[in-house]
Amino acid sequence: MIILGIESTCDETGVGIVQDGTRILANVVASSAALYNKYGGIVPEIAAREQVRVMVPVLREALESAQLKLGQVDAIAVAYGPGLVGSLLVGVETAKTLSLVYKKPLIPVNHLIGHVYANWLDTKVTEVSKVSNVSKVKNKRPEFPLVALIVSGGHTDLILMKGHGNYIWLGGTRDDAAGEVFDKVARVLGLGYPGGPLIETLAEKLARGRERSKIKFPRPLINDASFDFSFSGLKTSVVNLVHSSQFTVHNKEDIAYEFQQAVIDVLVKKTFAAAQKYKVKTVIVGGGVSASSKLREEMERVAGDTDLTVSFPEKFLSGDNGSMIASAAFFEKKSIEPLKLFARPDLYFD
Ligand code: KG4
Ligand code: ZN
Q: What's this model's pTM, rounded to 2 decimal places?
């Protein structure tokens, strides 16, 4: 079954064409992220206008790259929320129109669940052998039951999945999302947008160079029994340091390193605590922040002491893309009458 997936929830316009939920035939993504450098965050009105400008060219390029015509795909899938309303509307209305004109089933997908399914796309699962402690890369799909950590610019959630389409929300952030704090800290450090990769590059400079200084940031809720997160206090600590007389004493690299480590420590600890509590053998990570090499490294290091398998999407599939939406649609198989579908900016796990 060939599904064309559309993703337009935020500042990326993605069209992916995927066979049987796993094989990517085309994956085209246009991003307007560079336009927000001077603002330090997305400007929703600009993002929506960019979606309108590039949606059709992206769609055309994906079809050309897969050497397919619209009549040859079996279904149209679209991320209908959560996201920015103006951006979402462009993808949702495009998908409804294609479904009606080409008489194809329309499958709505929760954007966050899409990030989970990025792990089914020609996934490489890194298995760390308990005995030899040597990691080997295998082509293997994640196995249920599993715990999924979704870390993006707008969300930080832990869910338990017992099968396709069967998920239980365990906890999430009470305030800022992980990606959001990366973006805000990058802004206060004058680095630009999106913040995650910029902070990672700065932190790596320090890791390769010299001893780090003695800055210590809080790890909020790290020992709390719930699976909730809270990152706004950590963000405030960084902002306060930057605005204090102490700022000049520290290098930006030191701050980036310790901040990144604080976020990752919390994410890793909570995720493995959930995996233990629910006795799963697989942990999967998805969303823009899952592109972080340091997060991948730490997750794999901790998994090395257990019999857990950790799965990350291919890096280019960590951020928003249409292929993950097509994959989720294949496994969830919930089609809807096109005229009954509406964008749901506040969609969560319901
Ligand atoms: O999933 P995504 O592409 O869009 C949303 O659904 O929000 O996630 C974007 C987020 C941004 O906040 C960005 O700073 C963060 O992912 N991100 C990273 C890294 N690469 C992207 N955060 C930490 N480390 C990275 N290497
Ligand atoms: Zn996303």
A: 0.93
